[in-house]
Amino acid sequence: MQNRIYSGRFIVLSALLMVCGSVSAAENYTLTIKEHRFEPEELEVPAGRKIKLIVKNEDSTPEEFESRSLKREKIIPGKSQATIFVGPLDPGTYDFFGEFHEESAKGRILAK
Amino acid sequence: MLATAIIVFREVIEAALVISIVMAASRGVPARGWWIWGGVGGGLIAACVVAVFADTLAEAASGVGQDLFNAAVLFTAVAMLGWHNIWMQRHGRELAREMNQVGKAVVSGERPLYALAIVVGLAVLREGSEVVLFLYGIASADESSAGSMLTGGVIGISFGTAVGLAIYYGLLRIPTRHLFRATSWLILFLAAGLASQGAAYLVQADLLPPLGREVWNTSDWLSEDSLIGQILHTLVGYVSRPDGVQILFYLATIAIIASLMRLFGDEPARPVGH
Ligand SMILES: [Cu+2]
């Protein structure tokens, strides 16, 4: 009985480790939002690989990272950051923008 | 001001459509007003709480807390909609029969209105927290624009509500004896759409594989940003570039709810003695 509980825990633990493993396997890229603009506006990433995008919002207002081609949509509150996983991407250009400041907050990801 | 109105409208319309379907589905139930507007009120309060803690939520779970939260909210709503449909399938027939005899008020009062109240509350919570966060963000950044922000917000909320009302009154034109059936179909598709949205959040958080990125692309033909696209997105879960896993969740939700409706819904045929 004891044993079974422990092996159950072991399975859960190793499953968690696998999830964490796959998470940390993705390469990190950082996008910063400053005065309703993205920095950098053009981000080059390798095609065919999963990317971990860390979006830092240095403004005091919230922004919504949105990309139709990447199919991503996420609110980044002011003075905070969030993680968005994208890809693996086919080679090409993927536009994104800040939905709350669409006139200024624009950028694209180049997958090569 | 126009930008504010459009952004608020986009958020409000989703909640408004959910409320209108739930209102139509509970037509004629005496206490429904309490439950539904209670759900809306509870959702608004919760939305403000979520907006206040938005930064904590965003940074939680290594930056995917918001996605996990959204997915949890969506899947809870799916479960509640499914439960309502299964319950209705079981009792709807009795209900319809007894409506003529006992009068519908007593019998239909037993319906699981709390499930619908939770659905409404969750929809308001999800969309409302975005609106609150957005409006608060503008107001705190630039006090001079507070007036035009308020106007934009009010315009957005009014238009969103108007679309919801239009759908509601449209549904009411369906004769009562078909209304149960029509709303249970609508709820089935609504639930499937929410499940596929939930799956998309889990892909974004890297907890589910996409199983094929962008299985098709109909965004040139019908964009989700258009009014029709957005309405279809909420009502039947239309997505112009779905991931494989979204299609899987969509179909699985329909299959599971529909088979549970069959399994628990069909009463043994007993002679009613007409
Ligand atoms: Cu929304």
From TrEMBL, chain B:
Keyword Ion transport: no
The keyword Transferase belongs to this UniProt entry's keyword annotation: no
Main location: membrane
Gene Ontology CC annotations of this record: high-affinity iron permease complex
Membrane topology qualifier: Multi-pass membrane protein
InterPro entries, A to Z: FTR1/Fip1/EfeU (IPR004923)
TM segment ranges: 34-53, 68-87, 113-138, 150-171, 183-203, 247-265
Pfam families per UniProt: FTR1
This protein's UniProt keywords: Membrane, Transmembrane, Transmembrane helix
GO MF annotations, alphabetized: ferrous iron transmembrane transporter activity
Subcellular location field: Membrane
Protein family according to the UniProt entry: Belongs to the oxidase-dependent Fe transporter (OFeT) (TC 9.A.10.1) family.
Cited PANTHER family: IRON TRANSPORTER FTH1, PLASMA MEMBRANE IRON PERMEASE
The protein's name: Iron permease FTR1
Natural source organism: Methylocaldum marinum
